[in-house]
Amino acid sequence: MSYSSIARSFHQILQKPFFNDSRIISKIYIAVAILISLKIYFLETWDNYDCFSASFGHLIRNLDLYLAYPLEYHTLYNYSPSFAVLMGIYDFFPDGIGILLWNLTHTLVFVITIHLLPIDEQKKNFLLWFSLIEFITAAENVQTNASAVALIMLVFIFQQKGNTTLSSLFFAIGIFFKIYILTAGVFFICFPKKIPFALKVIFWSVILFCLPLIFISPEQLYFLYGSWIERLQKQSDRHSLSILGVIDLLHFEGLKHSYVILAGLLTTLFVLVKKEAYQDKNFQLVYLGAILMFTIIFNPGVESPTYIIAIPGVVLWYLYTQKEKWHIYLLISVFILTCLSPTELFPPVIKEKVFNPFHVKAIPVIITWFICIFNLFNWKTSPSKENS
Questions:
Q1: Looking at per-residue confidence, does 142 or 114 come out higher?
Q2: Helix, strand or coil for residue 61?
Q3: Which class for 148: exposed (0-12), middle (13-18), buried (19 or more C-beta within 10 A)?
Q4: Cα dihedral value 181, 112, 126, 336, nearest 10
Q5: Which of 314, 284, 283, 285 is nearest to 297 (CA)?
Q6: Alpha helices, DSSP H, located in 236-309
Q7: CA 110 to CA 147: how far, in whole Å?
Q8: pLDDT tens across 345-377, in order?
Q9: What are the pLDDT digits (tens) for 323-347?
């Protein structure tokens, strides 16, 4: 079967009524979250969840959150002290119920946020269907990334609505949730009411920064934030599943990661010289897609489950850019090589010998980001309506 016939079949399948019912896909996400939670509890270990839930107990006992605790779990805690306070909710429940509530929380946050996006219902459904495999990958690892992408999109959604109270709240929560959600700060440039947004971000950030003081002393809080910064620096040194990891594979000596990240950031920001495009809703959505992809492909600490952040960005680019026929081929490549490559559809030998060592999962998204940026630089402004 040729690639073009696969593309036609792809489009035909997505036109079926089953794939255009928002109630069906929303229920599927919830069912998937429940089934994955049961699978984890009865058949697997839940090391990541143990790390998250234990953080609250460590906090209230004045322990360093960022040390290894091999008797409790084998991963390392990378989140803020404020996040540990929120984990007290889950620590209250037995593991089985806690894992279920954890996955349902991130599922509902993700699905509700997609439904809040200013796009039509059919495209929301397409985005959810296309992101489902990547969502499963994140949920199976008991990760927070579905909520991370939701927070970035919520900043965009409420900035677009002019609601600086909520957009600043979600931005501040994002900073204390996953530090790389700072990328959502770029929407400060795109939309009006900049001063109210900035002041409210400071207000919410002070509250979140001080939240652990309910349980610990100011001295311990100061210590923990210092330890958190050290932990983030160490985390950035690992072999990343991003453009940084690909560059390492190519052995470009002397090309520092910081230079690559800065180049990507400046390129992404330079798109905003096209001020005449700011009011074009399609331009805004494609730019949101570029930010979601940038957050991952220029991130020095990316793993496979993190790609749930990038995939909605790829879909937004596909849906709202000024289309070329070959775009569908790139979209299918992302689905096969990025979304499906970690699954059991591919033999372990291919994953171990080809996909994993050569960062195949990252490459289609990297290509899509470059094309997305090119499309934004060459954007032709049009009336504020959605593309068909």
A1: 114
A2: coil
A3: buried
A4: 50
A5: 314
A6: 243-249, 257-270, 281-297
A7: 6
A8: 888 889 888 888 888 999 999 999 999 999 999
A9: 788 899 999 999 999 999 888 888 8
Handedness of CA 243, 248, 254, 258 (dihedral sign): positive
Give the residue among 283, 312, 289 at the shortest CA–CA distance from 385. 283
Q: How many Cα neighbours within 13 Å face the side chain of 386? A: 14
Instruction: Give dist(CA 171, CA 280) in Å, integer.
Output: 23
* Among candidate residues 382, 190, 187, 184, the one with its CA nearest the CA of residue 282: 382
The runs of H, that is alpha helices, within 276-360 are: 281-297, 310-320, 327-333, 348-350
State how far the Cα of 318 lies from the Cα of 331, in Å rounded to an integer: 7
Rounded to 10 degrees, what is the CA torsion of 211, 212, 215, 219?
-120
The answer to whether 85 and 212 have CB atoms below 8 angstroms apart is yes
Q: What angle do CA 378, 379, 384 make, to 5 degrees?
A: 175
Residue % of the chain over a pLDDT of 70: 91
Where does the pLDDT of residue 388 fall: very low under 50, low under 70, confident under 90, or very high at 90 and above? very low
- With vertex at residue 168, the alpha carbon angle to CA 166 and CA 172, rounded to the nearest 5 degrees, is 115
Q: What is the DSSP letter of 307?
A: G
Amino acid at 189: I
DSSP state, 381?
P
Q: What is the CA radius of gyration of the chain?
A: 21
- How many CB atoms neighbour CB 310 within 10 A? 32
Tell me the whole-structure pTM to 2 decimals. Answer: 0.91
pLDDT band at 143 (very low <50, low <70, confident <90, very high): confident
Is the separation of the CB atoms in 127 and 316 below 8 Å? Answer: yes
For 194, list phi and psi in degrees, rounded to 5.
Answer: -65, -45
Nearest to 167 by CA among 113, 131, 239, 213: 113
Q: In this predicted structure, what is the pLDDT of residue 312?
A: 97
Size of the chain in residues: 388
Is residue 388 helix, strand or coil? coil
- Secondary structure (DSSP) of 167-233: HHHHHHHHHHH-GGGGGGGGHHHHSS-HHHHHHHHHHHHHHHHHGGGGTS-HHHHHHHHHHHHHHHH
